[in-house]
Amino acid sequence: MRIAILAAFMALLTIGGTACADNFPSHPITIVVPFSAGGPTDSMARILGERMQRSLGQTITIENVTGAAGSLGVGRVVRSPPDGYTVSIGHLGTHVANGAIYKLGYDLVTDLEPVVLLPSNPMIIVSKNAVPAKSLKELLTWLKAKPSPPTAGTAGAGSGSHIAGLYFENATGIKLQYVPYRGTAPALNDLVAGQIDIIIDQTSNSISQVRAGTIRAYAVTDDKRVESASDIPTTDEAGLSGFHMTLWSGLWVPKGTPKEVVAKLNGAAVEAMNDPAVRKKFEDLGLQMPAPDELSPDALGAWQKAEIAKWWPMIKAADVKVD
Ligand code: MLT
């Protein structure tokens, strides 16, 4: 008897879930950006969200929930109902590195459902204009000669800019003093104002200030130049051979979100990325589009797990301290 009641209850739940999934979305969706407004993750979310609302027929709002290198914003999504109305945007930092650094209170793999891989951002090595160096080699010499460790802006321990900084320290032997912000948008403001020395930033964040001449760019951390900023050399060309890092991003929803809902969100994001106007905006920012076979939810899940296996040992060995 109890089994029959339980079976009927489960059937009701399933019917309820399907009905919700069929109607999805029936009201506005929120994308939680775990960093400051105006930064690279925020810009990507706004460009994508604006186009996704056309496919989904609902408003998409952006909510910036900042702090602890994005882990607070991701936590906000993990604790939301699994119905597709609260979506997490994040990247290698928030959805991989943070699991090796923070006591998160959630599991990045088992508490989230992958939706889609988003464009990747090559990093760019930039300094305040007051730094006298004119090339990457001169920058390295200047940084090494500084009597106190050069200051590097980051979006917190475990953010993209911080992982890039750790990698840079490893590759050059230069010790950096990290200055954490709630995103690289405020870090960039301080670089322009000359308050910090460098950022190893996402290209999409720094590129407009580089073009405006308010900061100096030395190299992009990829094996090919960024088309929309082709005057900036690669690290290979500029003398830091093999120093490559692109920061991939993605969308996730809470675990237990119906598959049909995940598929609808995935379809809208893919449609957005295939729209020539959206592609142009992303490519102007220096972003690289994912390949068609990388766009399924399963592909993002497999990629995230592979990145965890690759990065966690290195990050744990760096023994990153957080307050
Ligand atoms: C941001 O949007 O501020 C970033 O993605 C920060 C980072 O991870 O460096």
TrEMBL record:
Signal peptide feature range: 1-21
Record's keyword annotation contains RNA-binding: no
PROSITE patterns on file: PROKAR_LIPOPROTEIN (PS51257)
Keywords, ordered alphabetically: Receptor, Signal
Origin: domain of life: Bacteria
Family: Belongs to the UPF0065 (bug) family.
Name the record gives this protein: Tripartite-type tricarboxylate transporter, receptor component TctC
Source organism: Bradyrhizobium erythrophlei
